[in-house]
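W.,

You were right to be curious about this one. When I first looked at the sequence I had no strong expectations either way, so I just let the prediction run and decided to look at it fresh. Below is the sequence, 418 residues in total, followed by the output.
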Amino acid sequence: MEPLITNDAIVLGLLLAILAFVFVTSNSDKPGWKKFYTFFPSVLACYFFPALLHWPLGLISGEGSQLYFVASRYLLPASLVLLCLSIDFKGILNLGPKALIMFFTATAGIIIGGPIALMIVSALNPDWVAGAGPDDIWRGLTTVAGSWIGGGANQAAMKEIFDVSDELFSSMIVVDVICANIWLAFLLYGANNAVRVDKWLKADSSAIESLKEKVSSFQKSVATIPTTAQYMTLLAVTFGAVALSHLGSDIITPFMESKQATLDKYNLNSLSSSFFWLIVISTTIGVGASFTKVRKMEGYGASRLGTIFIYILVATIGMKMNIGDIFKNLELFYIGIIWMAVHVILLLIVAKLIKAPSFFVAVGSQANVGGAASAPVVATAFSPSLAAVGALMAVLGYALGTYGAIICAWILESVAGG
């Protein structure tokens, strides 16, 4: 059926209007909106409201639109550069070894949790994880890994790298958001009972107090009201990095394609994907820039612009979704729940062993699973002055998201026999 609106300029205007509506209402103090977004997170709304325009309303369709292609090939690598260039590795190291141990434990829990969950569910009922080609369940799970280690940009990258169908991706979004928010509710409850949790962990939380004065200094030191020249410089650096990423991808991909037989032998087919190299190179450029003066562009609003690019991408993904397909794979929630359980159990074991404060457990987890959207929220639940710690750790998650998700994807493919 032909959609009512086929002009991409009009569709883009509609998508931006929807995003503005979601952001305004989700930040509203009105009780009705607060209650709505408690049960229907804003990131899910950014996927689903455009999807409603596709089905059942039939106003727009992603199939004949070029918006998703533009967003995924230009805005996605740009957002990775922007989100990674502000990483303060020195600041992260200053958080102390326990903070980093819990963060990397959370990452490891996601990397191994997916394959473990897939093995368990496959043993219980192989039909639940059946699929072929773009509908292979393991492919869809790579997008959850991207989201839970990094964020929306990494999730979208995995969708493209591993050729996940739109229908399967729709189901994975629901698994991702619902499972993550169930765990978020437990973390917020734990934050309100931090003293008791720290007592159970036998943790010394005195170091948390010293963090409150240290972690927000960078953003304050570079904060400024950007000029037109500064905005232009930011855009030049960002899309110059995107151009270099495309150039690198164009050079590396043909070489990898010439080695296709070897890649097939070792289940490394993604290395011949041009999109794979586009994402890896852009992420690497962003991380590299964080060691230079370029990172001061955070003061111009780099991370905010990167977030805007991500949400435009999210909306273009949403317009390709058919909501009715979501309920075809409810068994996927078993995988999501087991996956999250592995993540949580590993966190608690390590926290108990090293006597890490519950703050590091919660923020380390959410810096992975929730990213920049919820890690500061969890940090603030412990103390408003600690919000910057959550943001700092979440940015590290963006940097590792692509790499960690790819490692998880290779293990998933091996488990699935791909």
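Here's what jumped out at me. The chain has a mean pLDDT of 84. And, maybe more interesting for your project: The longest helix spans residues 228-257.

Coffee later to discuss?

I.
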